[in-house]
Here is the input.
Amino acid sequence: MGVYINEETQEFHLQSSTSSYIVHVLKNGQIGHLYYGRKIRHRSSFAHLFRIQPRAAESSVYAGDLAFSLDIIKQEYPGYGTSDYREPAFQLEQENGSRISDFQYESYSLSKGKPSLDGLPAVYTEDPSEADTLIFHLKDAVTGAALDLMYSVYAERGIIARSARIHNQGDQVLQANRLLSASVDFPDSRMHMVTLNGSWSRERHVAERPLHEGVQKISSARGTSSAQHNPFLALKRPETTEESGEVFGFHFVYSGNFLAQAEVDHYDSTRVTMGINPFDFRWRLEPGDDFQTPEVILAYSDEGMSGLSGELHSLYRERLVRGPWRDQTRPVLINNWEATYFDFDEKTLVSLASAAKDLGVELFVLDDGWFGRRDDDTSSLGDWYADTRKLPEGLPGLSKKITDLGMAFGLWIEPEMVNEDSELYKKHPDWIIHVPDRPSSHGRNQLTLDLSRQEVVDYLYDQLHARLSEADVSYVKWDMNRNMTEIGSAALPAGRQTETAHRYMLGVYQLYERLITAFPHVLFESCASGGCRFDPGMLYYAPQAWTSDDTDAIERLKIQYGTSIAYPLSTMGAHVSDVPNHQVHRTTSLEMRGDVSIFGMFGYEMDIRKLSVEEQEQMKQQIALYKAKRELIQKGTFHRLLSPFEGDGNRTSWMVVSENKKEALVGWYRVLAEPNPGFPRVKLAGLDPDQLYRVDGGPVRGGDELMHAGLLIDQEHSGSVPPEGEKLGDFISCVYHLEAVDEELL
Ligand code: DGJ
Here is the structure.
């Protein structure tokens, strides 16, 4: 495994634990693509995979060589205008108006490990032997511009990370109209495209469509990666299931505007491209300037969607998330938002925390409303000092009272925003994202601060540094509650206005980096009206993210199931909240809300003081169960068993298995009661087939039996005389615990 290079034929074989990715230098000096798919044994040459023939209707690069048409040739970083009519990876415009480039291979460099990307989130290695990085150095003779294509292949993972870097080494200004991160040409289109789509409070629902001719794309132009489309797409074979078959995943490590698309051409080839959304993007490169694109993760598995998820989960858990919280198990928290909204004082908060502490909660999180004069969402964002009407002794006083209870203290912030009704806005009205001579649209009564400006980032850093220093803060929930509009910056000249959205993201990343460096012990959770910016970029800074504002147990089945396609449980904030649920007004049992939330980073978001004694006891048990199993939940391998998106979606099931396969937790959920149902079994996954497991402290079953014959669900009866212990009615759930037992003991 690693990178094999045939200097003579100029072929490069990047071999990961599961995949092979083979490229070569084309006759015209550009980089061509030969193969991406299941790992194949290295042989000295794969040049025979390059196949072209003259086709009458195609343009070709050379006079007299009708076959060499870029429209037919598979490429690594294609441009437009020189016989390829598909959508390109880039477009550079010269001072004379020409948009034609010809980046020719000059050399390569190969190194151990993986370099970080300036100012951008990226996966990493801890030991250089984990990955090899191959960089192609290309040059455009006419403009003098240099292009580096970077590939890092992980030896023990089915992962390749790709990005591109343009360096203007010439003497004229270049305008980048499009600079995507990766492009991959597949020889066929017999694939389905899987994406994670939604909206606020119904994020990351799984959608699947067969590829067909033309462009099928998802994108964001909202200034965030968005709830509408996660920056993720997978191509799977039609026959691929959860546990078997081939699937290719593409995931963008970025939190702003993006494009992800598959284009099927007239030869049934498929081109996947991913990167910063070229719509409303144009970047000026002065002589000497360079531009690094964010990276794309390419993940491959021939073990179905669960295999793909497994590759992404372990990569993100182990080599994207950083800091001490990467490996530390996460605390059980209570957040006051749905308990009090803006209406609280110190006494209420301490009494809520104290009640939670008695039940086993470890962290109290103070949400929105603690600063400025914020009694609703119309004021004070930007004024990051405590409201002494509510907190007479400020954050130091409150945090002391909480930590004196034996709990950790956490704080909500929304640094990227400002209300018009704030001291900050009065002082710096031009510090917002806006354009001249036009009114600014509002979102949740707020405006977006212009984090493309260094002085804004510095101001926020100073404010937040002061708050996090004066109080004993162990956790920060970093919220972000609106999409961008009228995108422009007062600090940029007219010709650079289209750089604002990306410069903003660089400012957000810089602010995060400085804060996590100054406060390495603090656990950051990112949030954007729930899950509107749940992406790998954010996870580089904040190890977990608030999955959705929708905490209804039934809605969460779809949201958490969909999120798990690309993200590990250790990144998903999941809380038990009040009923009737505040988003959909549905009433589900405390048991079911707990059974769904424990498959995530667990907590509560309700006024637990109002619970009955029985409910408090139940909550205590939920917390005890979570604490006992959180190592398994946070670090185990996740498998989806029954999809809420398939069939009538009435049943969902999933499970998590410990790394050594000695323990597992299975969640099973039924939405509506059914009259006289059948006797279905749920086939488990990921167990050791040769191992015996005790199910819920009772019967012992073989791992092979549980995976192939299935686990009998004992809640599927119905009728006039329900068996004892059966859960009745709608919205029921069970969590089964499997523990390996030694054969000799039986
Ligand atoms: C949106 C978040 O998703 C909620 O959890 C809460 O923090 C509110 N913002 C507070 O304004």
